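Homework help board

Subject: predicted structure for assignment chain

Our instructor gave us this sequence and asked us to write out the predicted structure in token form, then describe one feature. I got the tokens but I'm not sure how to describe them. Can anyone check?
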Amino acid sequence: GADWYDPCCDLSPRFQYLQLKKKLEDEFPGRLDICGEGTPQATGFFEVMVAGKLIHSKKKGDGYVDTESKFLKLVAAIKAALAQVCQG
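My token output:
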């Protein structure tokens, strides 16, 4: 479904940030450098780096990953970046 985090609770952006970080780290253990800041009001910033290359930045206009389709798009971008790293 579209809700890949628990929809029954009123989730703070901080919780969503931690949830997203965990999902990505489970998917790519030890491969990502995720930095971000979640506060009760806003997600602040959220950036994902692969081998020193910025893959996703909320601040630079990639937006917040709040739907499954955005999450899958991010995962695809990470996989592409990792493939380049492995070839390089």
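Reply (TA_rk): Your tokens look well-formed. For the description, you could write something like this. The chain has a mean pLDDT of 81. That's the kind of observation they're looking for.
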